Amino acid sequence: MADRPLHVAVIGAGPAGIYASDILSKSGVEVRIDLYEKLPAPYGLVRYGVAPDHPRIKAIINALYNVLQRGDIRLVGNVEIGRDISVDELRERYDAIIVATGADRDAPFNVPGADLPEVYGAADFVYWYDGHPDYPRTWPLEAREVAVLGVGNVALDVARILAKQPDDLMSTEIPHNVEAGLRQSPITDVHVFGRRGPAQVKFTPMELRELGHVPDVDIIVYPEDFDYDDGSQAAMENSKMTRQVVEQLTEWVFQEEEDMTASRRIHIHLLQQPVEILGEDHVSGIRMERTELCGDETVRGTGEYIDYPVQAVYRAIGYYSSPIEGLPFDTVRGVVPNTAGRVLSEPDGQVLTGMYATGWIKRGPVGLIGSTKSDAQETIGHLLDDYRANMFSPTADELGWESMQTILESRGIRYTTWRGWELLEEYEKALGAQEGRERIKVVERETMTAISRGEPHDGKLY
Ligand code: NAP
């Protein structure tokens, strides 16, 4: 082991990158950790993926804040690795690099009509309502009836935000442009579609139950969509969560019709798969095929089709990672190829010394935020094993931050720091205080950057 601190660069300041940095910083090894983030603000999908009306999950930010405010992990925001700084430049200057860039876009979806203009990715919509600086400020909320494909928690978020009355979002951090967009939405009905049965939905019980408490929104579930095969029975026996979800869905089937008086509705349809999005130039409907369970929780089409009149389709069928220039990428799985966190070269599958992955870019976009911690444990364990085995050999004369700072400044890259984030937080909280809210997000990237750097700005919020 070298007679100097270990220098590690982490790419991505979301939960995966922060948990990995935290575990490494507490490992007992003398280490300098630089946490690179392409946005001017940290927290990744907790800030830009968790729905604004989920304060309990947003509160994970408090734990992430506690890690970063200690000061032993250096946050370097507004720097995109692969664009502003190459992966090779990092490799020359750090002993090890941990990729923790998550899954930031929608999985591909191909059925006839999927290219019509009103077919949207859930991730894009989430970025809009969560005020992501790199996405458009307006969203075309013109449809009265909408289809949401997929029965995971992202589908629930999308359906809930679409159906919720904007007044019920006004205690949250949503930016003003999002409030204005939601207020003009004429929506009345959101149809959520699952291609398998009730025991195969991916909702978690608490998030599903929450749907039943949204004011002025009725939940409608159809008895003909309920069927169970042997695989379903086994899933319900083995998983309390599955039983709870099925119980909740069943409860909604038995609601009294006279209790359904809300002006907006979320319909949950099961055992139906999308086959075509209808419409010439614009979406006018969606054609679903009834499916049946095969015994092992998979389904097959029955040849029976049902058309639903909808004017927009949101696909919430899973996230997908973006490749990073200079790093191998498995386009089938949408991950950086790795073995238990050690990155592998493509196509020969050799371990790339000093390169690691953690979080969704390592294992794909599944699992709640907490599961990222055990993932980081595994990756950091291997990194430390390799360190102790003297595997690292960066080549630059000067290592770590001093060397990188020189490069960033010579390129005129306006990087942001932890102190900068504290300034932006103060600004957002002051904006919120004017309206009796905890925070209102600043969306405009230039304003975020200037506030963080203590530079003059025109106060443009979105
Ligand atoms: P997910 O849980 O994997 O759900 C994806 C859904 O899309 C599944 O129902 C899947 O059905 C369906 N699907 C996939 N391909 C399809 C196709 N071609 N046609 C129709 N349906 C298709 O993914 P997610 O909703 O993106 O969530 C990702 C993770 O983030 C999950 O772990 C989730 O719990 C978490 N999350 C949590 C919250 C929260 O509030 N706690 C909020 C958002 C996300 P099959 O099962 O049949 O493949």
Structure in words:
The protein is an alpha/beta fold and 462 residues long. Helices cover 33% and strands 19% of the residues. It has 16 helices and 18 strands. It has helices at residues 15-25, 44-48, 55-58, 60-68, 87-93, 122-129, 153-163, 176-183, 205-211, 230-238, 240-253, 360-363, 371-388, 400-410, 418-433, 445-453, and strands spanning 6-11, 31-36, 73-76, 96-99, 105-106, 119-121, 145-149, 189-193, 217-221, 264-269, 272-278, 285-293, 299-308, 312-315, 319-320, 338-339, 342-344, 351-357. A hairpin with a 5-residue loop joins strand 12 and strand 13. Helix 6 (122-129) crosses helix 7. The protein is globular, with a radius of gyration of 24 Å. It starts with 5 loop residues before the first strand and ends in a 9-residue tail after the last helix. The chain binds NADP nicotinamide-adenine-dinucleotide phosphate (NAP). The site of NADP nicotinamide-adenine-dinucleotide phosphate has 28 residues, from helix 7 and strand 11. NADP nicotinamide-adenine-dinucleotide phosphate (NAP) is lined by residues 54, 57, 109, 149-155, 157, 194-196, 200, 202, 204, 207, 273-274, 316-319, 365-368.
Helix content: 25-40%
Question: What CATH architecture label of the largest domain applies?
Answer: 3-Layer(bba) Sandwich
State the helix count: 16
Rounded to the nearest angstrom, the distance between the terminal CA atoms is: 49 Å
CATH class category label of the largest domain: Alpha Beta
